[in-house]
């Protein structure tokens, strides 16, 4: 039985429809597979970069923490040095007064330290000034325990005072730095002739 042209055309159309259907399904399958592979690769890259970023910031955080510890250690050392210097600066109070009798006031908890500093500084003062000095630590009136430390040195009658406490030094520095702070905060004033 021979096929007519119409039957052949019909079979060809049917085969073409079948091939197109197969090709369309294959394209969808390839697209789906490509999309899936793209999403997997994208997720892998995102995860890799996320890990890198987290490692970077953890490293930065550790560096900052280490820097903070170093700064804190430096500040503590500076504070210790200032305390030691303040003890030795008691002799400065003696030099400023140049009195034969002086009274030293300190915090109650610092009496032993101050006594040791006085005992250490009297011979140095005698050698430098070629004069004797009598030093009494005031056991009745102490500096407030809230202050950070230091001493106040008075002449014999208590009318002249040399304050050598951390707070008085800070107050003095604040007054001395006021012009600089003013310029930093508000800028230079062309109308100001004096900077104090």
UniProtKB/TrEMBL annotation:
Keywords: Hydrogen ion transport, Ion transport, Transport. Transmembrane segments: none annotated. Belongs to the V-ATPase E subunit family. Subunit of the V1 complex of vacuolar(H+)-ATPase (V-ATPase), a multisubunit enzyme composed of a peripheral complex (V1) that hydrolyzes ATP and a membrane integral complex (V0) that translocates protons. V-ATPase is responsible for acidifying and maintaining the pH of intracellular compartments and in some cell types, is targeted to the plasma membrane, where it is responsible for acidifying the extracellular environment. It holds the Pfam family vATP-synt_E. PANTHER family: ATPASE H+-TRANSPORTING V1 SUBUNIT E1A-RELATED (PTHR45715). The keyword Iron does not apply. InterPro entries: ATPase_E_C, ATPase_V1_Esu. GO terms for molecular function: proton-transporting ATPase activity, rotational mechanism. This is V-type proton ATPase subunit E 1-like. GO terms for cellular component: proton-transporting two-sector ATPase complex, catalytic domain. The keyword Ion transport applies.
């Amino acid at each position: 039985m021979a096929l007519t042209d119409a039957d052949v055309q019909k079979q060809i159309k049917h085969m073409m429809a079948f091939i197109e259907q197969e090709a369309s399904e294959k394209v969808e399958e390839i697209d789906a597979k490509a999309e899936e592979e793209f999403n997997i690769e994208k997720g892998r890259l995102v995860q890799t970069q996320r890990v890198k970023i987290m490692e970077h910031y953890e490293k930065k955080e550790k560096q900052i923490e280490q820097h903070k510890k170093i700064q804190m250690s430096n500040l503590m050392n500076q504070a210790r040095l200032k305390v030691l210097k303040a003890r030795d600066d008691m002799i400065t109070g003696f030099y400023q007064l140049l009195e034969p009798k002086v009274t030293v006031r300190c915090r109650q908890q610092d009496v032993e330290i101050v006594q040791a500093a006085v005992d250490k500084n009297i011979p140095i003062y005698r050698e430098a000034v070629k004069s004797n000095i009598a030093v009494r630590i005031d056991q009745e009136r102490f500096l407030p325990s809230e202050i950070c430390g230091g001493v106040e040195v008075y002449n014999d009658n208590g009318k002249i005072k040399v304050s050598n406490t951390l707070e008085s030094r800070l107050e003095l520095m604040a007054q001395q730095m006021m012009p600089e702070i003013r310029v930093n905060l508000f800028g230079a004033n062309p109308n100001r002739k004096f900077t104090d």
